[in-house]
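Q: Structure for this?
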Amino acid sequence: MSLAVRSLLADAIADAFVALGLDRPPKVALERPASPEHGDWSSNVALVTAKAIGRNPRELGGELVGHLNANLPLHTKSVELAGPGFVNFRLAPSWLHEILDTVIDAGVKNYARVVSPGARRVNIEYVSANPTGPLHAGHARWAAYGDALSRVLSRAGYTVHREFYINDRGVQMQKFAASLLARKNGTVVPEGGYHGQYIIDWAAEMPGGLDTDGALEWGYAKALRYQQDTMRRMNVEFDTFSSERVIAARGDVEATLSELERSGCTYISATPETSSDRDQSQRKGVDPDADGTTPATWLRTTSFRDPKRNKPLDDTDRVIVKGDGQYTYFMPDIAYHRDKFTRGDLLINILGADHHGYVGRMKAAMMALGHAADDLEILIGQNCVLLRDGVEVKLSKRTGDIIELAELIDEVGADAAKLTFLLQSIDTRQSVDLNALVAKTLDNPVFYVHYAHARVYGIGRKAAERGIVRADRTDVDLSLLVHERELDVLRVLADLPGVVATAANDRAPHKITTWVRELAGAFQSMYHDCPILRDDVDADLRQSRLWLVEAARIGLAIGLGLLGVSAPERMDDLPVD
RNA sequence: GCCCUCGUAGCUCAGGGGAUAGAGCACCGCCCUCCGGAGGCGGUGGCGCAGGUUCGAAUCCUGCCGAGGGCACCA
């Protein structure tokens, strides 16, 4: 596979340094140049190392090239010096035939299954909507992202546990129950209640005569079932649904609080500690009359530093037990994160940008519990803007203006919905035009990729019709594949292991989307220019092309699988022309 | 005021130290005696501004401008 070629060439360069009487370079980078004129593989090693050893980069590069040309590595046709000192390798197509062999040997199950250096047991929490209503279209981005990231990390050697947190206690639940009851009884929805149409619909469904607790339990069960059903219909999976109630009932909150207290990271005060308090290491006394506030228990979140930025993780300490003895929402959340560490050594949370302020304090809390700052990774995604007729649709359960995720899936299907949300980085705000997504589905990129995959099966069906059988690979001469379009497909396939590694490392599943679209494009071009089943195609060439098609199928299936998108064998609803 | 993310083609976005910045849509040309044209080939068109680091910056750093989101003893 490409990694094999890469390390083979890197070793050859390192050997060349030694042969020239120089120290072996600490690192030899090799990359696939953007322009084919720069060869198949390129190294900047001369540029990087020249200065340290007091040499001119072009001169050093020239010597390396000279040695490499006298001792050509496997597959290498020639080595050239270019630009400011790049060492460029021009390879024979045989390196791509080797890729083809590797892809077919490894298959969908094992090709591009890589082991990341940082791979470990990871717990990924995503979506985690409050059980007070349906999932809406705004949740879709996190569902698609969390699901795809889980798949990518898993292929990169992580052991993945997927999790959904249910906030089934607290005032939101009370408001939800009160809103249902108000609609049921025809009274006015209370201040701060939920106004969505779904409340009206659900209230009609709800049995009569329930008290607040009864309505709460009924509504909770309804919302949870509904959300879980929606996730299933989107093919988004979870291993665990964690209930705040269960965690609290187990006594985890108290246990966590006393652990924090024992750690010495808490203090009791009416106001947050100031730095001078700390310098004098004195406790601020109870100061009840300052402005009527009573003392609370604080977590010293400001005393932990972010090692990456070398800055404090938080700019003020945080209350965990209020003056009235009640926990803040933060406290049970800490207990939940503590619990998650039983199901992973690395925690990943996927949250919307509106939760950004929460990152530092939770990392600090985990450090107070003895974890490293890097053991909790909070991935903040920018929110998604939904447009209808070019106008932004505001989503709010409170005001009642929501677009249900279930409806979105009804209209466009799970695949189109997911791929749409996986087109771009979560660092960028995404605009999704619902009209375009729904009405112009033919423009949706999922169709292009699906079509490529279905076309592979189409070729298979056509071959069967014509009685053409693919021979054993050992009887097929893959070296007949020399057409640029054929080699392009193999070049893209060669990139996949690296793409998987980068996507995992950067937590960026959209890189898989970019790649799979590229493969689909290379395949379509190849299909157009390289006939396979036509009568005028040489029988041996046909056989090698059939194996190339199989490799493309494997790549498409892996890519789609990593995105959680289906890989159809035929396209059903062809337009009527 | 402070913190986070983003500013790349008319639009939606890739590219996130490397040599001539890519794709889709839109627009303009071609290509159906051919394996599914939901396709293929080509063209027009772009890194917000100013400094800095570097052999090399769309990419890293600083400032400014612009967009979005945060800064509770609410959840």
